[in-house]
Recover the amino acids of this structure.
């Protein structure tokens, strides 16, 4: 009798502790999201007022040779690497990545999770297009572009969508990983890829630094919002149950 009571109390304690941890993570995530949104609003205000333009121009010019503005600083291989890395944040590569991940989840019977990844990724693209039209900031003309561009400048679409997609997929993989080290590794790779993609947009002269910073912040906030939504809906939408039933 005593053994049963002790086991019952331990089970109840573990459930309460887990619930408290989940609520704490949701609270911290919400606070982080609000902080990022505030940073985005502040940055957007500075950009609209033109307070960041001098900084943007100076940094773009510093990445080119003074006597040859069309030639970026650094060895020749760095420019080639920038072309390769920047493609990781393009719509073609990101679209294929999302398509492959969604297909993988569908083939494993994780239909709800597949729908969530698809909607989160498409939502990031739609948010990017909307914000570009709202701010309507022209592309920088400080230095020659090393890449053809057709859309508006603020925020950087490559930075925003790579953050939204890579971080969303990273969060999904973290839920599957067992080891804390593996979880850390997954998110580190997602963040590194996002940072590198954004940096190449400035190096290639197609975005102001503040465009990329805004893209990182907005993309991260969108991924964080999707993570919070996934955590809050994992029971009602059957996301967690689906993962358990289809390991």
């Amino acid at each position: 009798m005593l053994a049963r009571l002790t086991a019952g109390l331990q089970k109840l304690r573990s459930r309460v502790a887990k619930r408290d941890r989940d609520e704490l993570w949701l609270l911290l995530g919400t606070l982080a999201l609000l902080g990022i949104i505030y940073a985005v609003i502040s940055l957007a205000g500075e950009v609209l007022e033109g307070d960041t333009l001098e900084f943007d121009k100076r940094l773009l010019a510093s990445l080119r040779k003074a006597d040859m503005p069309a030639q970026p600083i650094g060895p020749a291989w760095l420019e080639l690497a920038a072309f390769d890395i920047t493609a990781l944040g393009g719509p073609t590569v990101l679209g294929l990545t999302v398509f492959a991940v969604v297909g993988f989840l569908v083939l494993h019977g994780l239909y709800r999770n597949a729908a969530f990844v698809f909607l989160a990724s498409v939502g990031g693209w739609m948010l990017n297009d909307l914000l570009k039209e709202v701010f309507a900031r022209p592309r920088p003309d400080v230095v020659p572009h090393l890449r053809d561009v057709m859309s508006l400048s603020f925020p950087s679409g490559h930075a925003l969508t790579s953050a939204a997609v890579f971080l969303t997929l990273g969060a999904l993989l973290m839920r599957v990983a067992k080891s804390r080290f593996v979880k850390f590794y997954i998110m580190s790779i997602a963040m590194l890829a996002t940072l590198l993609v954004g940096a190449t947009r400035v190096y290639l002269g197609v975005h102001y630094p503040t465009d990329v910073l805004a893209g990182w912040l907005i993309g991260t906030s969108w991924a964080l919002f999707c993570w919070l939504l996934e955590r809050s809906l994992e029971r009602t939408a059957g996301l967690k149950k689906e993962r358990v039933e289809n390991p």
